[in-house]
Amino acid sequence: MKQAREAEEFLVGAPEILRLVAEYMAVLTAERAASEHTIRAYQRELHSFAAFLTKRCGSGVTPTQIEHPVIREYLGTLYEKNLSKPSVARALAAIRSWFGWLARKGHIEQNPARLVATPKLPKHLPRVPGMEQINQVLDGMAGQTAGDKPEETAWPERDRVILELLYDCGIRNAELVGLNLEDIQWGNECLLVRGKGRKERYVPIGDAAAAAIRAYLPQRAQKLAAAKRASDALLLNARLRGNGRLTTRSVGRIVKHLALTHGMAVDVHPHTLRHAFGTHMLEEGADLRAIQEILGHARLSTTQRYTHLTSGQVAAVYDRTHPRAKD
């Protein structure tokens, strides 16, 4: 990949920048407890930016030499490579965060990236399947076993757990595959979920999700016993590859396959079910703050993006609650 080649050029060309990026990445990993996805993304973006600086300013470039027009120039090169606005915004976020750390550490006087405007992103409302459509899929999988329908996946009991937890609990794909058996707290009817930044929260388990888990657990135990293996993971891959834990990529394939098999949209993915959880909860009258807590959002504004209302629903709420809505 081109970014990887640029990173290699940077690694041999800018020792001071390299050292400061490495220090920041260590802080991001240890002190801020950032997710692996964030760490990989920030490292990739910062290495690419540093490669640009080395080429433009020379191998001896230091952070004090970098002003906001240089950052704008770099973003311009990203647009020339046909990167999307969200990709450019992500790169700027990494650069801005790095410069913020440099300023706090006294390496520079102020953060020049704060003077660079974030690209204006289009506001796309996620297409969310209806409640009836999702219920039809989940109800159709209840009681199903391997071999019942050739077009289904090889382990329908496990796959029903995947769909139930994504939709019933609104958890992220990474949170789902990170669940361990001990995270199911049957007495409190909840899951212990480890979210972004390793923050923990408790999420209620509904009756349907609990029933799916109970149907799956004996099969999980049998598979491990037959292979003379042990695993902490709640969700196993069918062949017990590696440590036996299912991966986010596999979950994505399973969800897409099940969606297509049951006539849902081709763009359904694990996060679609998280969107659906928040949207359907709000439609049924749940408090936005409660949804925020369950979803594990740090900001209410994030929850509002996930849980959108149709114009008809907004009008209905207005008519029902505003004292002057009706004569």
Observed structural traits:
3-stranded antiparallel beta sheet, globular, disordered N terminus, mainly alpha, 327 residues
In this structure, how is the largest beta sheet organized?
A: 3 strands, antiparallel
Sequence of secondary-structure elements = HHHHHHHHEEEHHHHHH
Radius of gyration: 24 Å
- The chain-level mean pLDDT equals 83
How do the strands of the widest beta sheet line up side by side? 1-2-3
Shape by Cα distribution: globular
The tally of beta strands, per DSSP, is: 3
Strand content: under 5%
Number of helices: 14
Distance between the termini: 65 Å
Low-confidence stretches: 1-13
Give the helix/strand class: mainly alpha
The percent of residues in helical segments reads: 55-70%
Describe the overall structure.
- The structure is a single chain.
- The protein is mainly α and 327 residues long.
- Helix content is 57%, strand content 4%.
- The protein has 14 helices and three strands.
- A three-stranded antiparallel sheet has the order 1-2-3.
- Helix 3 (36-57) packs across helix 5 and helix 4 (68-80) runs antiparallel to helix 5.
Detail the topology: elements first, then pairings.
Elements (H helix, E strand, L loop, with lengths): L1 H10 L3 H16 L5 H22 L10 H13 L4 H20 L26 H11 L14 H13 L4 H5 L6 E2 L4 E5 L5 E5 L2 H21 L20 H14 L8 H14 L4 H8 L4 H7 L4 H11 L6
